[in-house]
């Protein structure tokens, strides 16, 4: 789905005459808890794969080899946040400052 949403945006912009638009993903992540499919292992796998893609300039099917700036959501869990339970659990670190999983950024 990551490729489909980004490529859909690129196709739409090109259709409107805006070619060579740089794409930046400003918020992506996976919850560690609070809903089906949310777990530390799934959050680690998703975020680790996103980081690898960014570091290796993988791009998307529409733009292979064209790197993306990607910002992970979120650095810390937000236990005081309102809304659905999973919204509180996107942090790489818990609200206690302890790493939820050992993601690498190099």
Automatic annotation (TrEMBL):
Family matches, as InterPro entries: GH, Glyco_hydro_17, Glyco_hydro_17_plant
GO molecular function terms noted in the UniProt entry: hydrolase activity, hydrolyzing O-glycosyl compounds
GO BP term (any one): defense response
Hydrolase found in the keyword field: yes
Pfam families in the record: Glyco_hydro_17 (PF00332)
Superkingdom field: Eukaryota
UniProt keyword terms in alphabetical order: Glycosidase, Hydrolase, Plant defense
Gene3D superfamilies in UniProt: Glycosidases (3.20.20.80)
PANTHER family: GLUCAN ENDO-1,3-BETA-GLUCOSIDASE BG1-RELATED-RELATED
Family as reported in the entry's similarity comment: Belongs to the glycosyl hydrolase 17 family.
Protein's recorded name: Glucan endo-1,3-beta-D-glucosidase
Taxonomic source organism: Solanum verrucosum
């Amino acid at each position: 789905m990551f490729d489909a949403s980004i490529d859909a945006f690129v196709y739409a912009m090109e259709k409107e005459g805006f070619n060579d638009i740089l794409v930046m993903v400003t918020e992506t992540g996976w919850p560690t808890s609070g809903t089906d499919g949310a777990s530390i292992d799934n959050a680690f796998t998703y975020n680790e794969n996103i980081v690898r893609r960014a570091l290796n300039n993988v791009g998307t099917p529409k733009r292979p080899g064209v790197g993306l700036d990607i910002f992970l959501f979120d650095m810390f869990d937000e236990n005081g946040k309102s809304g659905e339970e999973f919204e509180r659990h996107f942090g790489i670190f818990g609200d206690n400052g302890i790493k939820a999983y050992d993601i690498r950024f190099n």
